[in-house]
Design brief:
Distance between the termini: 27 Å
CATH topology: Creatine Kinase, Chain A, domain 2
Helix content: 25-40%
Strand content: 15-25%
Radius of gyration: 19 Å
Number of domains: 1
Shape: globular
Bound molecules: glutamic acid, magnesium ion
Structural class: alpha+beta
Number of helices: 8
Number of strands: 14
Length: about 290
């Protein structure tokens, strides 16, 4: 039955927007007019899963969603896509081509309390990526929305256009929205320090196996648009094979052990067949 709803901002998460002076932002929960959680509220759904994992299984999750996007010149006519940069992936030349945009973007993220771990030029023309620190899954999904809003708003102020579409052009590397997840029990990262493969504890191995078993079906949620299938092709690091591997960018699940000395904090599982057409609350629901 259709339920009338209202959008209730979660004011504990209110952020003054650095890229849009005069504005603030907060994620919302969908509440029915009778004051109940709306059954279609995906933020509520994710919160419920996280709460049940904690209460019934003593498990906590940490998550981060990578944001990839393409920057185009804002002065190109109509729908023409003219990449704003020509320099190579990972090259400092691209940063120069974008002028103050990258630095202003980092400053805006910092002002909004987002800890950026890396901002780098990616492989497609005009493509960039931001990685942020891991937080609880609801906060991670909220943050993915805020990062996108910031990327877009700061670009606008620099006369640039951005796209998070899974594929901006028909051929070539697309924009992913990889989800990083780690499961924790009593403050211990289950993906590190264990007897299993690559240091996984038994529960992390089971978690990985379960995710892999369900991933072909889950991809309907994590890569939901027709354009998602322009991205999901071999040899473009989109993770199209139902397989897992340590630091393997072609497998759907990439086991990340982290660097020696940091593994107990950094080890996690990266889910690659995810793009930013996906609802982030559904895509990060472990
Ligand atoms: N752009 C690639 C994708 O579509 C990901 C590249 C990478 O970060 O490994 O998922
Ligand atoms: Mg990337």
């Amino acid at each position: 039955m259709y339920k009338r709803q209202r959008l209730y901002p979660d004011l504990d998460q209110l952020v003054v927007l650095a890229g849009q002076p005069g504005w603030a932002w907060a994620p919302v929960d969908r509440i029915t007019q009778d004051g109940q959680r709306h059954p279609g509220c995906t933020r509520t759904f994710l919160r419920r899963i996280v709460t049940e994992a904690a209460e019934h299984h003593g498990l906590a999750f940490r998550a981060a969603i990578e944001i990839e996007w393409t920057v185009a010149r804002g002065d190109a006519p109509g729908d023409t896509f003219t990449p704003a940069t020509t320099g190579p992936a990972y090259g400092a030349a691209r940063q120069v081509e974008l002028g103050d945009y990258p630095a202003d973007l980092l400053a805006a993220c910092a002002a909004q309390g987002i800890d950026v771990e890396q901002l780098h030029p990616e492989y497609a023309a005009g493509q960039f990526e931001i990685s942020v620190g891991a937080v609880d899954p609801v906060a991670a999904a909220d943050r993915s929305v805020l990062v996108r809003q910031t990327v877009r708003a700061v670009a606008q102020r620099h006369g640039l256009r951005v796209s998070f579409a899974p594929a901006v052009v028909g051929q070539g590397v697309g924009n992913g929205g990889h989800v990083h997840l780690s499961a924790w029990r009593e403050g211990v990262n289950l993906h590190s320090g264990g007897e299993g493969r690559y240091g996984m504890r038994a529960e992390a191995e089971s978690f990985t196996a379960g995710l892999l078993a369900h991933l072909p079906g889950l991809t309907a949620v994590t890569a939901p648009s027709p354009a998602s299938y322009l991205r999901l092709r071999p040899s473009q690091w989109a993770g199209v094979f139902t397989a897992w591997g340590r630091e393997t960018r072609e497998t759907a699940l990439r086991v990340i052990t982290g660097t020696a000395g940091l593994r107990d904090q950094a080890a996690n599982l990266e889910i690659k067949p995810v793009d930013l057409a996906a609802n982030p609350y559904l895509a990060s629901a472990p």
